[in-house]
Amino acid sequence: MKTALVLEGGALRGLFSAGVMDAMMEAGISFDAAVGVSAGAAFGSNFVSRQPGRAIRYNKRFAKDWRYCSLRSWLKTGDLFGAQFAYHELPTHLDIFDCEAYDNNPMDFYVVCTDVETGEAVYKKCDKAGHEFFDWVRASASMPVVSRAVSLDGRKLLDGGVADSIPLQFIENEGYHHNVVVLTQPQGYQKKRNPLMPIMRIGLRKHPRMVEALDQRHIMYNNQLQHVARQAEKGQAFVIQPDAPLPIGHTSHNPEEMQRVYDIGREKAERMMQALKLFMKEAETI
Q: Which of 59, 163, 181, 186 has CB 3.0 to 4.6 Å from 6, enough for a Cys bridge?
């Protein structure tokens, strides 16, 4: 049975997922596919290129660099996370993304974006690394209002988490039925309606369907959590998530804070590794 890794977003909460993935890589865990949303796409790409340690390394290195993430970057470029610096200069010159390893890995990798005009999810299978791929990842991770829409394949795209925060059902529909889901919120979490909707309505007033998707996101997300729980109960999903809310916000300029969240992910994966290996081994016999 085919296996997949499902990675939700959560901005810098995604460093928990990075810690989980690094522990899995070091333990020799592999999948037939992965699907990532927002930070899950950005950090998950390193799983395909087999570069453990890269995500935490560059986040700590550039934590205080205004070109990476800052109000100055937003005011100067229109993107809180600098589009050119974070998604092009960094992976090609400053902390090089291994495009060759990515291209040679038979594992399929999908990123999820949201179409600004329709408010619907867009799923992109990314077979080849390079600048266009980096832009797909950027689109998936581009938070509304503090990011410019990214134009790709004739669409204007933003944060994939708006339309499909936990794309387990998507990957199941692609034929993967034995999946590991990495969440960045603890068990029992329920998303509430976005308190910033008045600002969203103003910032996205030209895109009413995007506004509608944002307004309904908490309902979609909580329904997806229920689906994850049902699949886990049936033995078709293995869930890794923090034991408590992660001690970090959407952004951070504190390398020590980043390291703590990453370490929480590593430690959780290591504690669950024996059970995870048994789950993965079951896929070989089904």
A: 181
- Give phi and psi for 126, each to the nearest 5: -105, 100
Q: Alpha carbon of 202 to those of 123, 198, 205, 207, 210: distances in Å? A: 27, 7, 5, 10, 12
Residues of the chain with pLDDT under 50: none
Residues with Cβ within 8 Å of residue 176, at least 6 apart in sequence: 2, 3, 4, 32, 33
Tokens 């205080």: give the residue. Answer: 64
154 and 170 in contact (C-beta within 8 Å)? no
- Per-residue pLDDT, 284: 82
DSSP codes, the chain: --EEEEE---GGGHHHHHHHHHHHHHTT---SEEEEETHHHHHHHHHHTT-TTHHHHHHHHTTT-TTTB-HHHHHHHS-SB-HHIIIIIIIIIIS---HHHHHH---EEEEEEEETTT--EEEEE--S-SHHHHHHHHHHT--SSSSPPEEETTEEEEEGGGT-SSTHHHHHHTT--EEEEE-SS-TT------TTHHHHHHHTTT-HHHHHHHHTHHHHHHHHHHHHHHHHHTTSEEEE--SS--S--S----HHHHHHHHHHHHHHHHHHHHHHHHHHHHHHH-
Instruction: State pLDDT tens for residues 198-230.
Output: 999 999 999 999 999 999 999 999 999 999 999
Beta bridge partners of 123: 112
Backbone angles phi, psi at 122, to 5 degrees: -120, 125
Instruction: State if pTM tops 0.90.
Output: yes
